[in-house]
Amino acid sequence: MGDKGRILLAATGWDTDFWLAEFAAKAPAREVVLAPDGDVDPSIDYAVVWKQPPGLLSRLPNLKAIFSLGAGVDHVFNDPTVPDVPIVRVVSPDLTTRMSEYVVWQVLDHHRRGPCYRAQQAAHVWSEDKNQCAAADITVGMMGLGELGRDAAAKLRAIGYSLSGWSRTARSIDGISCHSGAEGLADFLASADIFVVLLPLTGDTTGILDATLFCQMSKRGPLGAPVLINAGRGGLQNEADILAALDDGTLSAATLDVFCKEPLDRDSPFWSHPKVTVTPHCAGASIPSSLIGPMIAQMDAHDRGADLANLVDRSAGY
Ligand code: NDP
Hints:
This protein has about 325 residues and is α/β, with parallel strands linked by helices. Helix content is about 30%, strand content about 15%. The strands form 2 sheets. Strands 8-7-6-9-10-11-12 form a 7-stranded parallel β-sheet, sandwiched between helices. Strands 2-1-3-4-5 form a 5-stranded parallel β-sheet, covered by helices on one side.
């Protein structure tokens, strides 16, 4: 133990026992340490983090790279003193697959009117309203065409949905009507019946899901007003504006996996809103067994001189 570089595990709010056990199994030659009281050995080579305590990483002069325990890295940048070393984020087939399962589940649920039938069941109502349109009649708009957005879009397309998408830089993806940047936003927002948000939380995207944006979601297709599914980050959404848009009919329904404050307060109006499906930030959890192996392989390769993969672009913030 300890004949390879040392790792700091700083995962605030997580049960670190699972992660330590997985590190011990996958990287017995590396010592993995915690810093519960903020004291940290300055010889640390790599930091593996989720919401690291601010200032902790800046005390590591030998730090070679930071590994985020999530695909998103907003939690890393919440620390203004994060040192200027490479930041690696999670890009994992396992995470991507589970995220796409979540998206397909929620899109199908809204398309096939799951919330309506559950409400009828709760009221013991056998309705003769069996109106069900085809997937081909529905356009799903992907806000974010990155690792997760592209995979979910491909799976939705295989079911038969039409796809449009929006990204920061221009993209050309077979089967998706692609839009980009501020200049492409209005056309994108007018294009879809169900919007799936898989954007990172950055300076540019904070609060982007607001009343102004919802008003531009102007399509009125087989589902009526558009549906919002946010599995990106809570900070993307103005929660008062979502509630107002649901109440005045600008949006017909919403599925929210992420919230400005997590856990969601017990008295949040989202819990009991008839048009809202709440899930507890479970769309794509980080699983030790699928993440630690590739992480260690990257550290080993980097120690032998290889470049790191899945690097964060600091200037873009994701
Ligand atoms: P990527 O970095 O691969 O993709 C991000 C996408 O968002 C890209 O298409 C990017 O554009 C686009 N984007 C970024 N900024 C803007 C902007 N200002 N305007 C328009 N488009 C923008 O990320 P992933 O697909 O891997 O992950 C997306 C997010 O999903 C994560 O950041 C995380 O917050 C969230 N997530 C949530 C989970 C959950 O359990 N709910 C689990 C995992 C991730 P471009 O293509 O031009 O770069």
